[in-house]
Amino acid sequence: MNDQPPARIAATPPDSRGFPLGRALPASSLYRSCTAAELPFELCSELPDMPGLVGQERATEAVNFAMRVRGKGYNVYALGASGTGRHTLIEGLLRSRAASEPTPPDWCYVNNFDDPQQPRCLRLPAGRGAMLAAAMKRLVEDLRAALPAAFERDDYRARRDAVEHQFKERSDEAFGGVQRHAEAHNIALMRTPTGLALAPTRDSRVLNPDQFNELPAAERERIQHEIEAIQGELEATMRQVPLWEREHREAVQMLDRETTGYAIAHFIDELRHDYRDLPEVGRHLDAVEHDIKENVGDFLTPPGAAPEGGPPMPAPVARDIADARFRRYQVNVIVDNAGGQGAPVVYEDNPTHQTLVGRVEHLARFGALVTDFNLLVGGALHRANGGYLLLDAEKLLAGNYGWASLKRALAAGQIRIESLEQLLSMASTVSLQPDPIPLEVKVVLIGPPTVYYLLSAQDGDFADLFKIAADFDDRVARTPETTMLYARLICGMTRREKLRPLDRAAVARVIERAARLAGDADKLSASLRDFRNLLHESDQFAADSGKDVIGAAEVEAAIDAQMWRADRVYRHLQEEIGRHTIRIETDGEHVGQVNGLSVISLGTQSFGTPTRITARVRLGRGEVVDIEREVELGGPIHSKGVLILSGFLGGRFGQNRPLSLNASLVFEQSYGGVEGDSASAAELFALLSALAEAPIRQSFAVTGSVDQRGQIQAIGGVNEKIEGFFDSCRMTGFTGRQGVIIPASNVRHLMLRRDILAAAEEGKFAVYAIDTVDQGLELLTGTAAGEADGDGNYPPGTLNHRIGARLDRFAAQAVALARLAAPAGIPP
Amino acid sequence: MTDAPADAPVIGHILVSLDAASESRPAIETAARLAADAGASLGGLFIEDEELLHLADLPFTRHITLGTGTEPLSRHQVERHLRSAADRAGRELAAAAERHRVGYTFRVVRGSSADLLAGAAGHGLVVAGGLGRPIGRHFRLECRWWSSLDAAQGAFLLVRHGRRTQGTVAVLLPDQGPASARLLRAAAQIAAGGNRALTVLCPPSLAAESGLQVWIAEQLGGAAAAPRVAVAPVEPDELPARMAQLNCHLLAVGGLDAWGGRQLRQFFDRFACDILTVR
Question: Which of A14, A114, A415, A559 lies deepest, with the highest CB count within 10 Å?
Fold first, then answer.
């Protein structure tokens, strides 16, 4: 109840920041334009390119430092918002430094002739890996021609014949001796299906049992003894056969080795000479030479030759088998730095276990999967070894064991190619275990700050392996210098992207847009992606208009088009406000009701919209009930804001009286979650209005948070919120009295739309800055808030006095009710 | 020019003689290929050597193998091995006939190889493996077919290897008699089937005869390319060098009685050439 006439509001002096508190801000405070003096050129094409990025000195220095430090673990995590040009900047820095660093060596895998399951790695100076591979291929081709020729030569044949003759003679002599001895006693040496036997003969024919039995007993016995004696000889001779065979094999092998050695000597020696500076290669050539000598048969069988007595093979099968025989002499160059200029800089777009550390491939051969060292494939770590590797942190963490494999390689300082099945101990089949390759690489992970902080907190290895954080800012201070650097950045971008040049006004508009995207008139957004998109779209508008230069109109059109494409939901909301489906009053007065402002983010777009906030008070126990919280629609920060209101009430009005009230606050027609404290000032105004029973002008909307002392604090999204209420007023009709009350500390963030500036200049719409609750109350009610005297009393007629009086009445009622209830035993 | 002889061609039927003691696969392969080349019929005859069975019937018989040493040899054992060898020979003949797309017959008989061959000859060409199955790598007992050479009537081919080779066919022609004519025609037919060159080596006296070329042409009847005629070395020891010069892989030997068996075996072993004889 108002028992006093409203007190008049005293004139507010201008704020030290240059704008009046509690009065409409001048249009110049609502937008910070880019002046001609800041952009001393006509066309941006007059400007030189901007090297690097603007305002990222901290991150740049971090990357530069990491590149200089050679200690283990000095890898980099570049954290920052997406689209800020981290990748481009880092790649540029790395490439610039890598160009002056030495080109790393080639890496090859070759057969391990002692254990083919464990291929050996060879390190060769850059470019010589491929040369060795070609030389080995040529060697095999040469030997496939030279060795058969060597074994066809008369001298080999003669020596081989001599060996064969020697052993045949030995056999013939031994068996012949037995045979002759037997024949001398009319006994024949016969071939049985599985061996040899001795048979008594007469007239060169074997005696049958009848003929034998007809012989005199003495003769039979003599024959039998003779046969037994010769049998002993024969048996002794037979026992010699395996030894002779072994000797024969060895003699032939020795002859073949000698022949092979002589035939291949000059080929191998030539290679040895070429690689005499590389002892590892020399050792490999020794092993190759030894293996060729031991397996010269592979070179002597013509391709496609069928096994003896077998049918001829189809040509592809024969070719496959022939090729397979010589695969073990090949050289698998898994890192070829031939032609490399400096250290490599590698970006792996799909960082998984296999793409990082390589893989073991297989061939299907005759229904089986087979592999050898030729099927080892290097990964990004191999390619980047001796240089730099760039990876996207999110992709790395999402990929198949990419992160685990990368950590393992960095921690061990070596790359070990193994299949994922082996890594996870899922396969028990025998596979390759190639020599690990020493790793010396600088890894740069690019990712969002959240991932960096998560890894820092949750991954114990992270701090050891990624010691340098390159922190990219998403905003840059807006100064004359940075403005000019941005102009050069824009200019460079148009050149690189082959876009039309921008005139000065267009550049100014782009820079102003950068400030708006930063949400701060004194800052510029560092999102190069947004710039690039805006330039491309502006260029298209210029093309559509047949212009050779992008002007401010094209930039403006591109911005409008961007917003129009994204604001379908926003326009629907505004339309419903215009149709009063969503009840927002933009004129008149109401007690306990104020227009609050909230920001809704959908995808890349954020927009503001007004929300009716109402407050009701009644006799109670000093509780302020947040209905949003009660129904679990209010987030913790919002709840905190509401609780602060109780603190403010208690601090200002509860020093001399009990706060015997209950208050309820609600966001009307709000059906989703409410979070943040930017509506706490509006809620307080609604509550105080209800207590003072002072109506609030509905032509205002309010945003800002409040502390327990009644000071108004900055909030986010101030531009979107103002624009949201402005659009609502347009829907309901401008009255000339409408405006938005914002925290004074948000004035520097204002970069409002052109139409709002125009409306402000015409006096159709205003923005008010306040620092205290009282300033806001006075604006909203048109009544003086009043200042407390030394005893804490407020002048009559002021809002604070009316609030105090209302609270006194609640307190008195509470005491009276308590007295009534006490005799009946009802607890107070 | 004279008319073609009335009894050409010589090779109308090919009989491949097989047993358990000799290398059968080269003989089978050669016989099937020649049958296909000459359009001749093909028959296989596996001879179960009765002397082996006699041997097995003797009470004290042992046989010695590389794998198991000395062990008794029973008739049952020998018969089982012979059946197994006959089965294998039959399968190999079937496979070779199929490869060369010729029909064939196959039978197994028991007896003496010499007797059976004597009976089977005269029906065309008899083909047999010239190598006994080895004991170990180097020692081979001479196979029975060499002793059958004397008994064989008609054309007899001892085969060393079954693969088709590109060497020449050389004919040692002693005279212009009927046996020589049959030998020449058989050799020419084999050479023509394999697209191999034919060289006729004659003693100087025969080579000097003016009608030799005409006689040769008459025997071949224009069915084959004209052979090269050359003088054979006077000294038998010079013959190997001449054969090496000719890259001879089949030697057709006429006047068999003039050649010792040892010398033929030497050709067979040293030059790895097949030997063709005709009686």
Answer: A415
Name which of A197, A205, A207 is nearest B63 (Cβ-Cβ).
A197
Residue of A678, A689, A699, A728 marked active site: A678
Q: Residue A588: how many CB atoms within 10 A of its CB?
A: 12
* DSSP-based three-state secondary structure for A25: coil
Helix B178-193 and helix B25-38: axis angle, to 10°?
A: 90
Q: Which two tokens stand for residue B204?
A: 């100087």
Distance CA(B250)–CA(B161), nearest Å, equals 11
Find out whether B107 and B42 touch, Cβ atoms under 8 Å.
Answer: no
Q: Are A133 and A284 within 8 A, CB to CB?
A: no
Report chain B residues whose CB lies below 8 A from the CB of A197: 55, 61-64, 73
Q: CA B17 to CA B151: how far, in whole Å?
A: 14
Asked if A168 reaches chain B (Cβ–Cβ under 8 Å), the answer is yes
Helix (H) or strand (E) holding A168: helix A154-184
The answer to whether residue A678 is catalytic is yes
CA angle, B65 then A205 then A169, to 5°: 45
User: Are A379 and A356 in contact, with CB atoms under 8 Å apart?
Assistant: yes
Whether residue B9 is preceded by a cis peptide bond, meaning omega within 30 degrees of 0, is: yes
C-alpha A119/C-alpha B167 separation (Å) is 47
Q: Taking the complete model, does pTM exceed 0.90, yes or no?
A: no
Residue count of chain A, please give it: 828
Quick one: tokens of A398? 């999402």
Residues of A with Cβ-Cβ distance to B143 under 8 angstroms = 191
Closest CA to A617 of A555, A679, A676, A692: A692
Residues ≥6 apart with Cβ < 8 Å to B54: A199, A206, A207, A208, A209
pLDDT at A823: 63
Q: What is the pLDDT of residues B22-67, one digit of tens each?
A: 888 999 999 999 999 888 899 999 999 888 888 888 888 888 888 8
Residue of B209, B160, B210, B213 lying closest to B184 (CA atoms)? B213
* A130-158 pLDDT tens trace: 999 999 999 999 999 999 999 988 899 88
Pair B238, B265: CB distance under 8 Å: no
**Phi and psi at residue A325, to the nearest 5°:** -65, -30
Mutate to test the interface with A, among B33, B57, B63 (most CBs of A within 10 A): B63
DSSP string, A666-686: EETT--S-B-SSTTHHHHHHH
B133: which chain A residues are within 8 Å (Cβ-Cβ)? 191
End-to-end CA distance of chain A: 26
B69 interaction partners in chain A (CB closer than 8 Å): 235, 238
- The two tokens of residue A413 are 């300082």
Q: Reduced to 3 states, what is the DSSP secondary structure of residue A47?
A: coil
Can you tell me the ipTM of this complex?
0.83
Predicted pLDDT of residue A321: 67
- Distance, in Å, from the CA atom of B227 to the CA atom of A81, rounded to the nearest integer, reads 94
User: How many CA atoms, within 13 angstroms, populate the side-chain half-sphere of residue B21?
Assistant: 22
DSSP code for A500: P
Closest CA of chain A from B163, distance in Å: 8
- To the nearest whole angstrom, how far is the Cα of B8 from the nearest Cα of chain A? 33
A537 within 8 A of A563, measured Cβ to Cβ: no
Residues 348-367 of A with CB under 8 A from B: none
CA distance A751 to A30: 6
Element (H, E) at A689: helix A680-692
- Collapsing DSSP to helix, strand or coil, A576 comes out as helix
Q: Is A371 on the interface with B (CB under 8 A)?
A: no
Q: What are phi and psi of A466, to 5 degrees?
A: -130, 85
Which DSSP state fits A610? Answer: E
How far apart CA A207 and CA A227 sit, in angstroms, is 13
